[in-house]
Structures are given as C-alpha cells and as structure tokens.
Amino acid sequence: MERKEKAPRERENKNRKTQTEGKRKTGQVRSGAKRVSSGQAALCPVYKKCGGCHLLELPYPVQLQQKQRQVEKLLKPYCRTEKILGMEDPFHYRNKVHAVFGHRKDGTIISGTYQEKTHFIVPVEECFIEDPKADAIIRDIRGLLKSFRIKTYNEDTGYGLFRHALVRTGYHSGQVMVVLVLGSPILPSKNHFVKALRELHPEITTIILNVNDQKTSMILGEREIVLYGKGYIEDTLCGLTFRISSKSFYQVNPVQTERLYGKAIELAGLTGRERVIDAYCGIGTIGLIASRSAGEVIGVELNPDAVRDAVFNARRNEIKNARIFRGDAGEFMTQMAAQGERADVVFMDPPRSGSDEAFLSSVVMLGPAKIVYVSCNPETLARDLGYLTKHGYAARTAVPVDMFAQTKSVECVVCLHRKEREK
Ligand code: SAH
After folding, report:
1. What is the bridge-based pairing of β-strands 296-301 and 275-279?
2. Closest ligand 1 atom to the C-alpha of 376?
3. How many angstroms separate the CA atoms of 85 and 253, rounded?
4. Known catalytic residue: 50?
5. Residue 174 burial (CB count, 10 A)
6. Which residue puts its alpha carbon closest to atom 12 of ligand 1?
7. Which is nearest to 80 in space by CA: 411, 298, 400?
8. How does pLDDT run across 187-227, given as a tens digit for each residue?
9. More confident call, 39 vs 347
10. Cβ < 6 A, ligand 1 pocket
11. How remote is the CA of residue 186 from the centroid of ligand 1, in Å?
12. What distance in angstroms lies between residue 85's CA and the mean position of ligand 1's atoms?
C-alpha cells in the first residue's frame, strides 16, 4: 500500500492526473469502441478515482458557465464580474506533471496519482490535462526502473528508493526538466540511467536528483544534485525570459498565464512612474513584466529558491528598476508601513489560503491607489475583499480566468481602488 498526501501547491491547484485509453482527436476523444464529444469523462478510466478533473464530464462551455456563476455569487457583494476568459483548447495544458511511484503486490512498478482523499496510488498512463511529452517521459522512467532493477519506495516501511518524478516543460522554449525524487542520494548506475533516459528523450535539457528521506507529505526534499544540464529550465512569458527551478512556483497553464498577467497589468493602469510592490512574487513574473511600465518594482517572496530565480530573472532581462526581497509578505509590508514607505500599486498573488490580516492591514496602512489581487481561490479572495472594502478600498472589476480547465479551480483577478482617490 502506498500512501501520501499531495504537496501543498499540488493540492492547491487541484490539477491531478487522469488516464486515457485512446488519443484525443480534434474535438473528440476515443477509447476502444466508445466515441464521445470532448468534455466527457467516459474515456478516462481513472476519472472517478483520481478526482483531478471533476468537471471532465461537462462540455467546456458549461464548465465555464459554472465557474462564472461561482465567482459572481461569491464576489457579488463587492463588484461586478466580467466574462470569464476561457481556453481555446482546454486539454493537455499542464506544463508541470507529477507522478508518484510504487509497486503492486506482484512487484510490477506503477506510477500515477493518489486516489482522491486517500493514499492509494491510481496508475496513470496518460492524462487529458497534462503535457503528453511529460506523460511519455514518466512511462519510460517506469521502464528504466525495471531494467535497472531500482526499487520503488514504500512509505509504510521506508524500504525502497524511487519516490516521485516531476517533469516541467517550457512552453515556448521546449526545455524539459526531469526531477527524480529518491529516498537516498545514491542512484545505482547513475550515469547509465541518465544516459538511457536522455537517449529515449533527447528533448530533456536538465535532470535533477532530489533527495527526500523524510516521512513527509511534501514531494520534494531539500537537497538536490544536478545530474545533467543547468538544473533549471527557462521559458518566456509576456516577452521576458524566466528561469524556473524545481522548487519554485510557476503557473501551470502557460497560455492562460499570459492572459491573466496581461489583464492584471492592464487593470493596474501603469503610467511609467509608479512604485509597484509585487507581493508573493515567486520567480518575479508579474513584477518584472510590470517593471517595463512602472517607475520601480519591489518583489517579496518567502521561498529562497524562487527568490534566487527572481533575482536572476531581473538580471537576465536587464531590468534595473526591480529589487527582490526574501521574507514573509505580511511582515515585509508591516515593516514598510512602519518605516513610512509608500507604494502606488500593490500586486498580490497569495497561495490558495489567501492573505493574512498582517498583510492586508499593512497594505491599508501603505495606502496604494490600486491593489491588483490575483487569486486561485475565489473563497479566500471574497474573504480578503471583505477586509479591504471595509478599510478604505472599493473593488470595481473581477475577471475570472480559466487556468484549470476540467477541474473545479478558477483563477480571478480583481482591481481595487483607494476610495479617497475616486473623489
Ligand atoms: N506571483 C507568482 C507566484 C504566485 S504563487 C506567480 O504568478 O508565478 C504564491 C507564492 O507565494 C509562492 O511563490 C509562495 O512561495 C509564496 N508565498 C507563500 N506564502 C508566503 C508568504 N507568507 N510571504 C511571501 N511569499 C509567500
């Protein structure tokens, strides 16, 4: 029995694997004798067990309607909601694919996802929402484990070696990162294993060995050894190039991310003079893209790997008006407010749990003319809007963006204005 919970960000995005038996043709999916129009769940053999694509059985326009209504209902007390920005092709969009490895009683190696709300592994071959290239790499890793006689890890006994594989793809760059998560730093026949994997998939640009020797619900451990390539991939977004490390957050839907960030920056209405804060900045995406139309950008982020990426990304794109700080966004903002600092625009893009009162109260104290709130959870967004609208801000527009087609999740961007400025 293999058990494990999702790492927080995996859980947050609620995008898990499903399995399909046949290849999807244009507008249609196919499985054995059955043929149904796209947006139906009949073809995914693990649809019920996986629990990633809750909406797979609904036609895509109905999914969008449902998400639109959900956001409208939650945000009704605060602002009007514009029409949701849906995807043109709502399949195979995920640029990050995770697979947990285990074995059956007879020793057969399996890889897939955890059954919803349990710790059982649901075997997955391919998935409607994942990058098919990543799924192919994961299938081949399974084959290599067999030929190299590498045992998969058993979480109950702590016996075995191979725990997870994580594949990240650069949508524009085509670069591919493979992270092999092992219970110990020793991968037998390491060089041969890497060579064999690269021969099967010459598109792989970096391979990382991540050591996770803890009984933990996190997928990745602290320690990493780069086995091949640079140890990160790069991709372009809104005209800038970003370095992405294995442990840094990066949006999973590259096409919709450009639309989301484009909208966020449009709503900020920058003129080139503003002092902008990018809170929860990750690898610096929103802030660095905004820096082209702002006076100065200050980014703050907790994860040290993401901070390193963000600093690198500023330099990589020759951006001179951005500074990145490591720290808790709430503490950082409280300190800024206490020091009498000011800001014109605050972009905030917190995790699924939303922001906290320390952060929100310090934003109110800093008093930016605009707050652009990017959220992957409309419920915590509504809660935080409740706070901000009681403390001098008015929300005008909410724009839902479908970043997670086939799943229940929906992303939103909301622009708030300081009330005095409106007079
Ligand atoms: N804006 C970025 C990242 C958004 S995800 C992007 O769009 O790519 C949220 C980010 O908040 C993650 O990078 C996470 O590491 C960071 N984070 C979580 N809690 C935080 C906190 N208390 N203070 C600062 N950053 C935090």
Report:
1. parallel
2. 5
3. 13
4. no
5. 12
6. 282
7. 400
8. 999 999 999 999 999 999 999 999 999 988 889 999 999 99
9. 347
10. 249-251, 280-282, 285-286, 300-303, 306, 328-329, 349, 351
11. 32
12. 23
